[in-house]
Amino acid sequence: MKGTLILVSLLVSWVCGPAATAVLDPDVPSEDGHGTENSNEIQNYSNQSAPEVCQLSTCELLLRALGTMQGRMRAMETRLEASDTKAVAMETKAVAMETKAVAMETRLEASETKAVAMESEIEQLKRANADKVAFSASVGGDEYQTGPYNVRTHLKYKNVLTNLGNAYNPSTGVFVAPVRGMYYFYFCYHAGQQNRGALSLHKNDQIIATTSHRTAESGMTENGSSGAALQLEVDDHVYVILHGNSWVWDGSYHETMLTGFLVTRL
Ligand SMILES: *[C@@H]1O[C@H](CO)[C@@H](O)[C@H](O)[C@H]1NC(C)=O
Ligand SMILES: *[C@@H]1O[C@H](CO)[C@@H](O)[C@H](O)[C@H]1NC(C)=O
Ligand SMILES: *[C@@H]1O[C@H](CO)[C@@H](O)[C@H](O)[C@H]1NC(C)=O
């Protein structure tokens, strides 16, 4: 800022002569010209081919301009000081925030550790729960009889009695092994003799067991059942197929049922 002041002084000096400069700037020693480097500079500038003396009106104008500029500079200084104060305050705040951020990071890390611990706990619980698999369901539904159909059909045991572990899906009739292990399945049916009755227990695409009867004229009913212990891998499918042109009957005593449970994990 002092540099600007000097420049202005020089300008005035150049136009008005050294005396005017001395009046304008109290820092510059007066008339005799020797002493500081500043006054020398002014003298040398004023030495150049400019007029030695300026019009009074011009000087007044310049003085006024200078006064305004000094005022502005003071204002700017004040603002600068205020900015400095603000900057210091902001720095303090930034430091505080950094401290907070570090604290939060620490807490986050602690939370993360906890989350990992909880996840492993949940995994353990899941594993423990996966050991509990058992279901029983009867065909149920609105009609007593299911079939006969022309084609082989997934028999859906819609009336769920138990379904521990939810590995059996009543809307598809398929049991999906949740863990590797030895399971036991049992299925039985009841049906009239007017149609054939034939059911097969399947593991994936493979027929495991079948129970059936032939058509007869007697008007009597038939009952059949079968079952098997099966070693299953995770995601193996077990279900019952109702053969083509055969039927089953299910009533309130649950005559046609499928049951399965995990004997032991392997
Ligand atoms: C100004 O001029 C004088 C001679 O007139 C000289 O002695 C002095 O060193 C000069 N000052 C500067 C800053 O050039
Ligand atoms: C300034 O003027 C003086 C004489 O008045 C002269 O000796 C000096 O060389 C001049 N300086 C410049 C920089 O022109
Ligand atoms: C089949 O079981 C039913 C009872 O659910 C019984 O009434 C019927 O006599 C049985 N059929 C035969 C052939 O034993």
Brief digest:
The chain is α+β, with helices and mostly antiparallel strands.
Question: What structural keywords apply?
Answer:
alpha+beta; six-stranded antiparallel β-sheet; 41% helix; rod-shaped; five-stranded antiparallel β-sheet; 29% strand; Jelly Rolls; 4 helices; binds 2-acetamido-2-deoxy-beta-D-glucopyranose; 266 residues
Q: Any overview of this molecule?
A:
It is rod-shaped and about 145 Å long. The strands form 3 sheets. Strands 3, 5, 6, 8, 9 and 11 form a 6-stranded antiparallel β-sheet that branches. Strands 4-1-13-7-10 form a 5-stranded antiparallel β-sheet, with no helix packed on it. A two-stranded antiparallel ribbon has the order 2-12. Helix 1 packs antiparallel against helix 2, helix 1 packs parallel to helix 3 and helix 1 packs antiparallel against helix 4. It has 4 helices and 13 strands. The chain is an alpha+beta fold and 266 residues long. The longest helix is centred in the middle third of the chain and has 75 residues. Helices cover 41% and strands 29% of the residues. The chain folds into 2 domains: 82 residues, no CATH class; 132 residues, Sandwich (Jelly Rolls). About 6% of the residues have low confidence. Bound molecules: 2-acetamido-2-deoxy-beta-D-glucopyranose (NAG) (3 copies). One 2-acetamido-2-deoxy-beta-D-glucopyranose (NAG) binds next to strand 10.
Number of domains: 2
- Number of continuous helical runs: 4
CATH architectural type of the largest domain:
Sandwich
Structural Rg: 51 Å
Could you give the count of β-strands?
13
Given this structure, which CATH class of the largest domain is correct? Mainly Beta
Q: How much is the average pLDDT? A: 86
Helix content: 40-55%
How much of the sequence lies in strands comes to: 25-35%
> SSE string, helix = H, strand = E?
HHHHEEEEEEEEEEEEE
The small-molecule ligands in this entry are: 2-acetamido-2-deoxy-beta-D-glucopyranose
Q: Low-confidence parts lasting 5 or more residues at pLDDT below 50?
A: 19-26, 28-36
User: Structural class, judged by helices and strands?
Assistant: alpha+beta
What does the main sheet amount to?
6 strands, antiparallel
Q: What's the N-to-C terminus distance? A: 87 Å
Subcellular location: Secreted
Keywords: Secreted, Signal
Organism: Clupea harengus (Atlantic herring)
InterPro entries: C1q_dom, Cerebellin_Synaptic_Org, Tumour_necrosis_fac-like_dom
